[in-house]
Specification:
Low-confidence stretches: none
Helix content: 40-55%
CATH class of the largest domain: Alpha Beta
Strand content: 15-25%
Mean pLDDT: 87
Number of strands: 14
CATH superfamily of the largest domain: Response regulator
Order of helices and strands: HHHEEEHEHEHEEHEHEHEHEHEHEE
Strand order of the largest sheet: 4-3-5-6-7-13
Structural class: alpha/beta
Number of helices: 12
Shape: elongated
Radius of gyration: 24 Å
Distance between the termini: 65 Å
CATH topology of the largest domain: Rossmann fold
Length: about 375
Amino acid sequence: MSSPTTKADAIQAELRREILNQEWKVGDKLPSDGVLAERFGCSIATASKAVSLLAHDGLVERRPRAGTRVVRNTPEPESTAPQLDSFAFIYPSEQHEGIWRTVRGFQDAANASGRRVIMLSTGSDYRKEAEYISRLSEFDVRGAVIYPVIPTQQDQVHFSQMLVTAKIPLVLAELNLPGLGCPAVVIDGFHAGYTMARHLLDKGARRVGFFSNYSWAPFMRDRYLGYRWAMEERGIAMEKESVLLEPSMRPDFKDPFREVRELARTYLQKNEKLEAVVCANDFLARGLIDSAHERGLRVPGDLKVTGIDGYASYMAAPISLTTYHIPYEEMGRKAFETLSAHVRNRDAEPVETQVRGHIVAGATSAS
C-alpha cells in the first residue's frame, strides 16, 4: 500500500490497521465522527472522509442514525487487475463538440509529456462516473479529470459526496464545486456574458434579453452576471420577462435542440419587442433562431442573436452565428497540467483556473 498523502488518508490507514489487527471485531461500532476528530486532531469533515474511505474498502458500514459498524476485519484478496500507471479523463460523450475538443487538448498534453491516459465515456448518467472513479485506484490510475454532466441540484449533492470519498486526486473541467478539495479548470463565464452583451449594446440594441437553461450551474450563472453587469454599466434597466433562467437541463447528445425548441418558442411569445438576445450557449442560440424564423422574424433584421461556445457546426450554416469562441483545447491542456500538479502535491490548496475566449462576429448580429 502506498503511504498516506492527506490527513484523511492517514486516519483511514490507522483505523484500517486497528481493524485488520482485530482491535475492532466484526459488529463493533466505531466512535462518532466527532469523537474521531478529537482523537486525531482534525475537522469532523476530515474524520468523516476517512471513515467513508473505510466504507469504500468494505471494512465498515455506515447507516444514518445507527452509526458505523465493522463488517470485515480481514484483508481483501490480492487484486489481479492490470496496473496502468496512468491518468484518466472521464466525460459524457464525444458527440458534444466542446467535450471532444477538451478531450483532444487533454490527450495532446498527455502525449507531449509521455503520460499514459485512459478515456472513459459515461453518457449522461453521472452515476457511472461515480462507479468508474471508485474502481480506478485498483488499476493504478494516479488521478482523473472529470467533465461532469449533473442534471439537477439533487444530483449535485450525490456527485459531491462521490468527490469527497474519492481515493485518487480529481480535477473538474468546466464546472467548479468549491469546498470539496478539487481543483477546477473552467471558462471565464462572466467575461463571456459581458463580452456578448457589450457587443449587442455597441450595435445599438437597448432591449437586450438573456436566454438560458441549466441556470443553477455556476458557469451559467456567471454568464448571466456578466450580461447583467454590461446592462447596468450602460444604465439600461432589464425587463423581467426578457431574462429566462430556466433551471432544468436534460441532455440529449443526439438531438441537442429537443429541449430548446419549446423553451425558445415560449420565450419569444413573451418578448415580442426584444431587439437582441444573449444566449448562454450555441445550442440555445440556434434553437432561438429557428423559433424566430417560425414566427416570421428576420435574424438579424428584427432580432440579433449571439451564442457562447464557438461550435464550428453552429457558426456556419444556415446563417453564421455570432458567438464567444471558447478555447476548449486549452481547457483540456490546462486540466492535464492541473492534474499533474495535484498528483504531485495532493495537499496543496485547490485552485480554480479560468480560461478566456474571444468574440467571433457572424451574420446573426450584423447591423
